[in-house]
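Hi there,

I know you've been waiting on this one. I reran it after we fixed the sequence typo, so this is the corrected version. Both the input and the resulting structure follow.
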Amino acid sequence: MPDAPHHVYFIHGIGKHGADWVDKEEDNHTTLYKQLEDSWKLYNANGRLGDFGQELDLVSVHYDDIYSRLYQQWADEVAKLKTNLAAYPGSADQLEPLIKIAESPANGVADDDFFYTHILDVLWYWGNTLLQGKIVAEVADQIISDVAKHYGKAGHTFSVVAHSMGTSVAHKVIQALWTQPEYDNRIDNTASLSQVLKFRVLMQVSNTSYVLSADRDQHYQTLVKPSAIGNRGVCRTMINVSNRYDLISEAVPFDPPRDEWLDAHTQWDKGYLNIRTTRLTSPNVHSITHYFENPLVHIPFFERVLNRRIPAPMKARALEAFQARTPSAQFKKLKGQFDALKEKGVGGIPDFIASTKDFIDLIKLFG
């Protein structure tokens, strides 16, 4: 198979993910690869877009193994503690309740307990700068190593799609790539990365980068923004995607100041697209496949990554068909409860964690 020219790096959110999650892990009864491939077919009459696998290289970027190693190390240390305590039966009996608490993280991950596979991931990431640094370094290395394989080949482009907590990871990773000297000369021996690379698209799906920012006052002052010129921004187009009923991105939304954020050469509606959807196809509104099922999301993804226009009649037919099977009255009760959760309001990280748990519990209830 020829080398697909459009490389897209997908960064996952919270939860358990493997090294090939885009291709193999089902979410809402389909993989992300299959969801995008099926959507592609809607607009590929007479091969207009070309062969999906020969045009798009969908790369799974993952960091969940860092959490796996953390919990395994924890489990190993608890096992050593139990072995040592076996020599002191009286003390071991007295400490048994504490040992059970110590064993709970590893057991929770093994049992796929939501708190340990999702909520605790966010807490570790936000509150532990050492762990966060490992995640940023791991993701940065995966992306830049793959870019280096294809950089300089005629017609090859590079884009990033991040989801949920992955949007916060992407923000920190791209800022690091552009500003930290250890990434200089990784793809060109004569220049810093910011001088030789610009992502064609940075797409943030259910964006948590602002709510998880340690310094919200400075969040929109970084280089992670679109720009039409030079190295003023990290991408040519930024696409921010949310859904009215997705509390994770709606609670404290990504909302850059319109008059100050972009430079004078970058048009707001061309350099930055803000897409807020309202339709539901399943209770799991936060799912990345749920987002990409919607033509309002996958059409701009295809158009901006490929730099091609899909004919308006094709887009209209796809959107009409999607709306026909997602009537506004669908999931009416669920939508009402989503709105009720949103009305509670979210301020700091503790509120965000609590509301996230309530939100996921609601999805499970209706799912």
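Quick highlight: The first strand starts at residue 6 and ends at 11.

Best,
R. S.
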